Amino acid sequence: MTLGGGPRAKRTTGRGLSGEQQRRLTALGVTPAERPRPETTSGGKAAGKLSAAFQRGAAALAQYITREGTTTSPGATLEEITVDGHDTAVNVRLGVFMSNTRSRRDELTEPQRTALAELGVEWA
């Protein structure tokens, strides 16, 4: 009988555990696994640089926040932004960007986390 993965599922992050549960596990010597911070992003780019796709998403988020006053956007939100060096506007699916970025937040570089935090994204 499976009951949601048991300790193995919780061991990696400790998410979903109450403070009391975390305290009990710590008393037993069980500690959460440390998440390594990536030094480079995929493709070998330097950690200090923001990818073009991330920059577009962050620009779209900033534009959306300016207009709507919130970081929460529906999944189907299309933000039209102008990218430096291009004459045409680009549509960014803001809800998709936010969902993907949040689900991959362990892979974000420090500059990316900082950029999101400055925009008011709580989970960054």
Automatic annotation (TrEMBL):
Which ranges carry the Helicase-associated domain?
A: 52-121
Q: Positions of the region Disordered?
A: 1-49
InterPro entries in the cross-refs:
Helicase_assoc
A Pfam family cross-referenced in the UniProt record is HA
Query: What domain of life does the UniProt record list for this protein's source?
Result: Bacteria
Q: What is this protein called?
A: Helicase associated domain protein
